[in-house]
Amino acid sequence: MNLPISFQRDRVPGLRGLAGALVGPLIVAALVCLVAWVVYDSFPSMQIIVLLFGINLVMVIGYQLFVGSTGIVSFGHVAFMALGAYAGGISAMSVTEKSIFLPELPGFLANLELPILPAMVFGGLVAAIIALVVAVPLMRLSGAAASIATLGLLVITNNVLNQATALTHAPQSIYGIPEVTTLTWVLVAVFAAVVISAIYKWSPAGLRSRAVRDDEMAAEASGIHMLSARVWPFVLSAFLTGAGGALYAMLLTAFSPQSFYVPQIVVILAMAIIGGINSISGGLVGALLITALNEVMRRIEGGSSLFGLHLSAPTGISAAVLGVALILMLRWRPEGLFGSAELQLGRDDRRKPESWKGQGLVEAPPGPAVKSNK
Amino acid sequence: MTEELLNVEAIEAGYGDTRVLHGVDLHLSEGEAIAVLGANGAGKSTLMMTIAGIVPSRAGRVSYGGEEITATPAEERVGLGIALVPEGRQIFGSLTIEENLKIGAACLKHRIGATAARKQVDEGIERAFTRFPVLGKRPNDSGSALSGGQQQMLAISRALMSSPKLLLMDEPCMGLSPKLGNEVYDILKALRSEGQSMVIVEESSRRALDFVDRACVLKVGRKVLEAEAAELADDENLLSAYFGIDQAVEQQ
Predict the structure, then answer these.
(1) For chain A, which residues lie within 8 Å of any Cβ of chain B, measuring from their own Cβ?
(2) CA A260/CA A241 separation, integer angstroms
(3) Distances from the Cα of A260 to the Cαs of A87, A124, A168, A189, in angstroms?
(4) Could you report the per-residue pLDDT of A93-104, keeping only the tens digit for each?
(5) Which of the two residues, A101 and A86, has the higher pLDDT score?
(6) B146 to chain A: which residues are within 8 Å by CB?
(7) The pLDDT of residue A371 is above 70
(8) Chain B partners within 8 Å of A15 (Cβ)
(9) What's residue A11's pLDDT?
């Protein structure tokens, strides 16, 4: 293989500057979106699935932005999806529909009627603001404690949405959100999320986050403010997830708080884990694989003929297969398909770890190699 | 004497219910080097981390350059000029060599502005690669690909990126072969000759005594001895009485 293209770990992209950082993930995004577009165009019955898949891509990239740069596995990101869906959905709903379905809305929201793009941004902003408020206490925790706290965030958000009937019409479904999400908007959102995520990943702030992920104590000793190295990826990630939630709201038009709970985070988590939790490219491919797997299993559940073979399986088999896929993945390739690699332009010129061995600290003199005692 | 750089007064610190330091004093003038010796569990690393601000002090005072910094968070202390090379090196394994160095200079942007910081980062990386050419050969390799000795070089270079006035070295030879340990000490000697103030923590090594000005001995969280380095180096009985140095080990 002598192509000037390679998969490389978290490292400064070969081409200088922003372009180098963006090109790789954008190529992967373009390929994945091409698959989505072809399927959307050729199979009318698959359109809704492709649109949901695109929204999941946004979710996975948002999720990966936080988990990849901080190393904290979040179980709470669906809370931001829910906040974005309600905030974005309500902001897009027409004033008349609001007066029918949500008569108790506070004045500011009751008079708001946004087109799709501002509604997405609004959904993202609401999620980001809530994230900023909860991040300050939450991100002081590390490891498993932080993960469990994010689960707590999901439970609390779910409860609040369930009780805030004036805003959410819960526990019943909310209705009347305009169905304006199109493939174009979904793809725009995917590319925007990839660009934001890649810029963050290779920015000085992203570098500081990854340093804290590697070693909290050493990062602190190097002069990094630990809290802000975690808070900002959390907020940025909540923004992307919230914007994805708003797209979801404007696609399904009706949903309840139960649409955003543990089963949804399992799917996002599976996509990120299978693809490689530190990699944007990996997240995109993981989402594609899980969606394809899910679709195949769903068809088998419904009983269908595949290549002349009649297949049928008990309901729930798709969830079981997802579980098995996760277990196999964690057993055989725990770092995910891509690990920490991104598609990057330029050859992989890194030295293999072994070739570092046997070298002295200071330049080895010419002649016989310096033999290390280690 | 010259100007005071670091003054630690009756510092107490610990983790949870365990108190590790029971009132330790440490004084360092500008340009001076001091060795902190002591057995395992004496509180040497805790003392370093308290000076660096990573472990909060429960009582006592730390002042630096005449100003009290007892409550100053760790990341701000780096900006003031205190840099710690932690025990066990603790480099960022998934980051590249160059990124590791950049992290060491994270505080500069705050201190001297973005443009000046960028210039100083470039110069700092240049200096590190001149000092350790082996690091400069493959700046894009990840830190975890380096051997133990090279990681120590990277950890020292990372700490030097912020141009610290005070360098804290926590057991710089831990886990290294005696030969590599000697090489690390050569580097430290070179830094000393450039006038770098430093505190070096060692479990029981006379190597440090060769080039520091003073040394103190910690025992279960208390300072039990402080003397001129030359004095201690001459009086082997004194040292071994305090922490039973195995002379055989020392001969290496």
Answers:
(1) 9-12, 204, 207-208, 210-211, 213-215, 217-226, 278, 340, 349-353, 356-357, 359-364, 372-374
(2) 12
(3) 14, 16, 13, 20
(4) 999 999 888 988
(5) A86
(6) 356
(7) no
(8) none
(9) 55
Question: Taking CA atoms, what residue in A is nearest to B81?
Answer: A223
Q: What percent of chain B is predicted at pLDDT more than 90?
A: 53
Q: Whose structure tokens read 């819960």?
A: A170
Q: Which residues of A touch B109 (CB under 8 A)?
A: 204
Torsion of CA A49, A55, A61, A63, to 10 degrees: -100
Chain A residues lying within 8 Å of B177, measured CB to CB: 372-374
Suggest the residue from A15, A361, A363 to mutate for an interface test with chain B (most B CBs closer than 10 A). Answer: A361
- Smallest CA–CA distance, residue B235 to chain A, in Å, is 31
What single letter denotes the amino acid at residue A301?
E
Of A73-77, A222-226, B78-82, B243-247, the one with minimum mean pLDDT is: B243-247
Dihedral sign for Cα A162, A164, A167, A172, please.
Answer: positive
Mutate which: A6, A210, A212, A222, vs B, most B CBs within 10 A: A222
Q: A91 with A114: CB under 8 angstroms?
A: yes
Task: Give the domain CATH number at B36.
Answer: 3.40.50.300
Radius of gyration of chain B (CA): 18
- CA B174/CA A256 separation, integer angstroms: 58
Rounded CA-CA distance A321/A290 in Å is: 10
Output the pLDDT for position B238: 67
Q: Quick check: B179 and A204 CB within 8 A?
A: no
Q: What is the dihedral of CA A5, A10, A14, A19, to 10 degrees?
A: 100
> Are A225 and B75 a contacting pair at CB < 8 A?
yes
B141 touches chain A (CB under 8 A): yes
State the average pLDDT for chain A. 86
Across the interface, whether the CB atoms of B86 and A363 are under 8 A apart is answered no
Q: Chain B: nearest CA to A278, how far in angstroms?
A: 11
Is residue B144 less than 8 Å (CB to CB) from chain A?
yes
Residue linked to tokens 């110069």: B123
pLDDT of residue A296: 87
**DSSP SS3 for A315:** coil
The encoded tokens of residue B161 equal 């990126």
- Cβ distance A223 to B92 less than 8 Å, yes or no, reads no
**Nearest alpha carbon to residue B100 among B153, B171, B137:** B153
At B10 the three-state DSSP class reads strand
Residues on chain B touching A222 (C-beta within 8 angstroms): 78, 83, 103-104, 106, 158-159, 162
Q: Over the stretch A278-333, which tens digit does the pLDDT of each residue have?
A: 899 999 999 999 999 988 888 888 777 666 677 677 777 888 888 898 899 889 88
Distance from C-alpha of B17 to C-alpha of A164, rounded to nearest angstrom: 44
Domain boundaries along the sequence of chain A: 9-260
Question: What ipTM describes this predicted complex?
Answer: 0.87
What predicted TM-score, i.e. pTM, was given to this entire model?
Answer: 0.87
Contacts of A218 in chain B (CB under 8 A): 86, 90-92
The shortest CB-CB distance from B84 to any of A221, A363, A373 is to A221
- Does the beta-carbon distance from A362 to B106 stay under 8 Å? no
The count of domains in chain B is 1
**Highest mean pLDDT pick, A9-18, A20-29, A346-355:** A20-29
Q: Please give the backbone phi and psi of residue B127, each rounded to the nearest 5 degrees, phi first.
A: -60, -45
For B114, the domain range is: 4-250
Q: Are B233 and B206 contacting, i.e. CB atoms less than 8 angstroms apart?
A: yes
